[in-house]
Specification:
A hairpin with a 2-residue loop joins strand 1 and strand 2. It is built from eight helices and ten strands. Helix 3 crosses helix 4 and helix 7 crosses helix 8. By secondary structure, the chain is of the alpha/beta class. The protein is globular, with a radius of gyration of 19 Å.
């Protein structure tokens, strides 16, 4: 493994996209996107519903068909088999077995990741750690089907964390959660980046969550309107919030797209 600090160089981007395009039927969902995600950062992917956020995340996770352009993830082409244990992908719909308890769900997925008796203690420790990470210790022995929607989403997040992934792709992970739990999860996201060096790509349509990110990708109609830090976006647009900055950039883009008389 290369030690970039000793060599005095920067590590390569965790994700690098050039001309990323996805066409579904007669609709172009992603329109030639160029962007990078740096290792150990939390990047927010923000924009209105239907702008292409989920399609972009599926492309990064390697589950989106008919992707053109260049998309490298952790130094490999997106979708490469070697990336599977290194990426945690949490969709909007919780991916859990409702007839199993929280602990049994995680036991099962841990056994898939590390099969065999030799890894039993490692699996047990990973399950305990991830249950604590997502604050479900008091519900560990409850059936997943009896949990609230937000709690089931946290079980899905715990599954993604079992393998301590290098890249976490989270599609609106805080939907339906109360403000305290949202705060706690964002604290967890930053710990994962700071302590474990993980890279996180987190989508949301809630603009106040943008302030919690290191960098932002603002999307509209399949295009990236801006890529920068929250502070830089506010400064660039002369606005007080990221939401105001986004609206300013949308209006600016609309003016440039207007045909000249």
């Amino acid at each position: 493994m290369v030690n970039y600090e000793l060599e005095g160089t920067r590590p390569p981007p965790a994700v690098a996209a050039r001309g990323l395009t996805v066409v579904r039927g007669d609709r172009t969902v992603l329109r030639g996107l160029d962007f990078t995600l740096e290792p150990g950062t939390v990047t927010g992917l923000l924009g209105p519903s239907g702008c292409g956020k989920t399609t972009l995340m599926r492309a990064v996770a390697g589950t989106q068909a008919k992707v053109t352009g260049t998309l490298d993830v952790l130094g490999l082409p997106a979708g490469s088999p070697a990336l599977r244990p290194r990426i945690g992908y949490v969709t909007q719909a919780p991916s859990v077995y409702t007839d199993l308890t929280v602990r049994r769900n995680l036991d099962y997925f841990a056994s898939v990741l590390n099969p065999g008796r030799a890894h039993r203690d490692t699996r047990r420790a990973a399950v305990t750690r991830t249950i604590e990470d997502v604050d479900l210790t008091s519900h560990a022995d409850a059936l997943a089907g009896a949990l609230s929607g937000g709690q089931r989403s946290r079980v899905s997040l715990a599954v993604a964390l079992l393998s301590t992934p290098d890249l976490l792709v989270l599609d609106e992970p805080t939907v339906g959660l109360d403000p305290v739990l949202r705060r706690d999860l964002w604290d967890l996201f930053h710990r994962l980046a700071a302590d474990r060096g993980a890279t996180l790509l987190i989508s949301s349509h809630v603009m106040d969550e943008a302030e919690r990110c290191h960098r932002l990708l603002l999307m509209r109609e399949g295009r990236i309107v801006a890529e920068d830090t929250p502070e830089a976006l506010r400064t660039r647009t002369g606005t007080g919030t990221v939401e105001e900055a986004f609206l300013h950039l949308v209006d600016e883009a609309a003016r440039t797209e207007e045909p000249t008389p």
